[in-house]
Write a structure and sequence with these properties.
The relative contact order is 0.09. A five-stranded antiparallel sheet has the order 3-2-5-6-8, with no helix packed on it. The protein has a three-stranded mixed sheet with strand order 4-1-7, with no helix packed on it. The chain has 14 helices and eight strands. Helix 2 packs antiparallel against helix 3 and helix 10 runs antiparallel to helix 11 (222-233). It has helices spanning 2-23, 33-56, 61-85, 93-117, 120-127, 131-134, 145-162, 167-179, 183-196, 201-214, 222-233, 238-250, 254-267, 273-289; strands at residues 316-322, 335-342, 351-356, 362-366, 384-391, 403-410, 417-421, 423-424. It folds into three domains: 2-132, no CATH class; 145-289, Serine Threonine Protein Phosphatase 5, Tetratricopeptide repeat (Alpha Horseshoe); 316-424. It is globular. It is 52% helix and 12% strand. With 426 residues, the protein is an alpha+beta fold.
Length: 426
């Protein structure tokens, strides 16, 4: 019941945010509202997934209430942050008066209607799944993580047809497609997003990345022009700098690559996968440029030391390989998704990588830098399942015939994991 009341209060706060903000701001001020609107849609989809997991018996009543309460807190924090960020420069007195009346009457009406028509007991009863469902296995062969992402993306795409001016919505859709490996669709969605949000350097960098992936991982041409736009908007954007270095390296401009990548390793968190990956590339670019490895940044281990990351409390590392008996079922260009998700509860990945099959066997490291979304990462996570899946379509949504391997449950901080892809999804 507590979780329901918290979520009810949160939904009222959301309703107030949507109604009051237009009444207390100038029309030309748009601030963070598009981002907030997209977050609301995401949180709503997460609530639906929690309800599905509860009804399927994969979440206990206590787990559902805990997850629901936490979701309510996140939505409320987003609402309050948006209200704070969008403090009006000037307001219309009539609009302010209407806002005050709405703020008083809307919550009272909502609570009154609930007490009149609702049934608090029914909410509690719905939380308890049937005994048979509660005893069911925690996961199906296909899982639910990427299906959830795909369904959310499809729903968001449908909404955007009726609201094509939501730049943040297009950005969210683009990132969802990117996770699913649907790069042409991601690039198309990014194009719409940057047209509406042209001053967002990170969005431009993400657009360039997706566009390059959709055209054979080549940055020359339009992707490079978009990278230049991103750096003009924000010369310190790390992803744009990293991509600019990659483009320079591709055209054998090794001094140029060194220049871009040095800026990245100086600014990026030294213990991140991103910084170490760029550091490795920087070492190679320096050697090819004739500068040698003498001036390597401090984040790089000495040449005599193993080129292996120390597994921290929010890091999982190991090696992924393909069982020999399945080699005839795959092609070198097939996509390999490697991800970690919670053992119980939400199937949303806490960290994810995608690689090419030709790289197997290969070492991998999952950490917070490979998280899909802020707040959903390995830090503080309990036991997790680590999964490797080969997708011939390049789509992260599991399909019949995909190859998969998994290890777990294991704790974040585990290293030397041997993850073998040895099953065919039915």
């Amino acid at each position: 019941m507590t979780g329901f009341l918290i979520l009810t209060g949160t939904m009222i706060a959301l309703g107030l945010a949507f109604v009051l903000l237009p009444l207390t701001r100038q029309r030309k001020t748009d601030g963070g509202m598009p981002h907030f609107q997209s977050n609301v849609l995401i949180h709503r989809d997460q609530l639906r997934q929690l309800q599905t997991d509860r009804d399927n018996g994969t979440l206990s009543a206590d787990e559902f209430e805990s997850e629901q309460t936490e979701l309510g807190k996140r939505v409320l924090e987003d609402a309050l942050a948006t209200l704070k960020d969008r403090a009006p420069v000037s307001t219309n007195s009539n609009g302010r008066w209407v806002a005050i009346m709405v703020a008083v009457l809307l919550p009272a009406s909502a609570v009154g209607l609930y007490l009149k028509l609702g049934s608090p007991t029914a909410v509690t009863l719905l939380k308890a799944p049937p005994v048979a469902a509660a005893a069911a296995p925690q996961e199906s062969p296909h899982g639910m993580s990427f299906d959830q992402i795909r369904a959310s993306a499809e729903e968001l795409a449908a909404r955007l047809k009726n609201n094509p001016g939501d730049g943040a919505g297009w950005a969210t859709l683009a990132r969802s497609y990117n996770v699913l490996g649907r790069f042409p669709e991601a690039a198309a969605a990014y194009e719409k997003a940057v047209a509406l949000l042209p001053a967002d350097a990170q969005l431009l960098a993400d657009y360039a990345d997706a566009l390059a992936m959709s055209q054979g991982q080549k940055l020359e041409g339009q992707p490079l022009e978009i990278i230049k736009r991103a750096l003009k908007t924000d010369p310190a954007n790390l992803k744009a700098l990293a991509l600019a270095g990659t483009a320079a390296f591709e055209r054998k401009d090794y001094p140029g690559a060194v220049g871009y990548w040095e800026k990245v390793v100086q600014a990026a968190p030294a213990d991140s996968e991103f910084a170490r990956s760029i550091g490795n590339s920087l070492e190679e670019a320096r050697a090819l440029a004739g500068g040698g490895p003498a001036a390597l940044p401090t984040i790089m281990p000495p040449k005599s030391a193993p080129m292996e990351r120390a597994a921290g409390p929010a890091t999982i590392s190991g090696t992924v390989s393909l069982a020999p008996q399945l080699a005839a079922k795959v092609k070198p260009d097939d996509t390999v998704f490697i991800f970690a998700r919670a053992e119980k509860g939400s199937r949303m990945p806490l960290a994810i990588l995608n690689r090419s099959l030709r790289e197997l066997p290969m070492p991998f490291t999952l950490d917070d830098s490979s998280a899909m979304a802020p707040g959903m990462n390995l830090s503080g996570a309990g036991p997790v399942m680590v999964v490797a899946r080969i997708s011939r379509s390049g789509n992260a949504t599991p399909q019949s015939g995909d190859l998969e391997g998994r290890v777990g449950p294991i704790q974040p901080g585990s290293k030397d994991i041997q993850l073998k892809i040895d099953q065919v999804l039915p």
